[in-house]
Amino acid sequence: MAERQAVAVIIYMEKKIFIVDDDEFLLDMYAMKFRESGFDVEVASSGADAMDKIKNGLSPDVILLDVVMPGMDGFEFLKKTRSEHLVPQALVVILTNLGQKEDVERGLALGAKDYVIKARHTPSEIVGKVKAILGQ
């Protein structure tokens, strides 16, 4: 069993996840959980900060993206990165508490691979969802 876990950590160690959220507590918590699971983690506390990092060469495998943020919100960030082909290879998972049908549809239409409601999932479950998406 321990060998199996070690293999999983090695596989994900090569994967870079970019977590974008204006809630510093949640940002730190998710970053810690993903690091513990073997991911290379980058963080940004706003859409504008995230855009700067992307434009300066950050090329993540996965972007875990909050929607409600000051300035540039997650939808705007996603729309801009997709329309400008800034990180076409990155899988985007929206992680927010906006759960209205229209919000979910908008996020998926903009190119998100998944739309997850924060309040309905533990950080460990979020890590599991990202691993499942990467395993597809």
Question: What is the helix/strand order?
Answer: HEHEHEHEHEH
Which oligomeric state applies? Answer: single chain
CATH architecture classification: 3-Layer(aba) Sandwich
Structural class: alpha/beta
Task: Describe the largest sheet.
Answer: 5 strands, parallel
Domains, number: 1
What is the number of helical segments per DSSP (H or I, 4+ residues)?
Answer: 6
| CATH topological fold name | Rossmann fold
> Residue share in helices?
40-55%
Low-confidence stretches: 6-10
Annotation, overall tally of beta strands: 5
- Overall 3D form: globular
Strand order within the widest beta sheet = 2-1-3-4-5
Q: Please, what is the CATH homologous superfamily?
A: Response regulator
Distance between the termini: 23 Å
- CATH class reads Alpha Beta
Can you give the mean pLDDT? 91
Using only C-alpha atoms, the radius of gyration works out to 14 Å
Strand proportion: 15-25%
Describe this structure in words.
Residues 16-133 form the Response regulatory domain. InterPro entries: Bact_response_regulator, CheY-like_superfamily, Sig_transdc_resp-reg_receiver. The modification 4-aspartylphosphate is found at residue 66. This protein has 136 residues and is α/β, with parallel strands linked by helices. The chain has a single domain (2-127), classed as Response regulator (Rossmann fold). Helices cover 48% and strands 18% of the residues. It is built from six helices and five strands, in the order αβαβαβαβαβα. The chain has helices spanning 2-13, 24-36, 47-55, 74-83, 101-109, 123-134, and strands at 16-20, 40-44, 62-65, 91-96, 114-117. It has a five-stranded parallel β-sheet with strand order 2-1-3-4-5, sandwiched between helices. Helix 3 (47-55) packs parallel to helix 4. The chain starts with a helix and ends with a helix.
